[in-house]
Amino acid sequence: MKPKTAGRVGGGYRPAGHMAQATSPFAGLVAGASIPTLNGNCAVEDLCPGTHVITRNAGAIPIERIETRSVVTQAVYVIAGSLGHDRPDRDSLLSGAQRVLVRDWRAKAFLGQTQALVPAQALIDGEFIEDVGQRALTLFRIFCGAPRILYADGMELASADDIALSRTQDAA
Q1: Fewer Cβ within 10 Å of end Cβ, the chain: N or C?
Q2: What's the CATH number where 114 sits?
Q3: How far is CA 109 from CA 53, 81, 117, 153, in A?
């Protein structure tokens, strides 16, 4: 099966400043991810502040801001249905650092809890969830004013508020 990806980095001409050169982990939703809103599903790149997105833990809430960044980072390919029935609802690509809400045996295995937020890279099994290496990705960080669980391609993913909060707590 050939992954649906943004393409490999390497060779070819890339203008200076076009792509972040650091390969540090950066979480965010990959361009093309389908996000449920009050007006139906919308590609993440078409969202804007004020758009009401459907969340797991707060219903429909407005987006406060969106940050976009093009980076070279670890990418994880998730085959449709590999995280549960219809989760994701299509083959999807994630940043390895993107935190995913798992509510099955994986949560017990990782943290001994019924549900847990884990980085996508921790879910790699080599068969249904694959490490596809360093990729050039355009990532969208969605901020909702407080940590939220967003839906993207049927997966439950942490908002950027959660990522910023966890970095603040790690620094303390």
Answers
A1: C
A2: 2.170.16.10
A3: 30, 19, 12, 24
Cα-based distances in Å from 13 to 19, 36, 139: 11, 36, 21
Task: Provide the number of structural domains found in the chain.
Answer: 1
Domain membership flag for residue 12: no
Instruction: Establish if 76 belongs to a structural domain.
Output: yes
Asked if 9 and 136 count as a contact pair (C-beta separation under 8 A), the reply is yes
Domain contains 138? yes
Q: In whole angstroms, how far apart are CA 32 and each of 29, 60, 94, 115? A: 9, 21, 11, 27
Instruction: List pLDDT tens digits, range 111-126.
Output: 899 999 999 999 999 9
Residue 58 tokens read as 């707060």
Give the pTM. 0.80
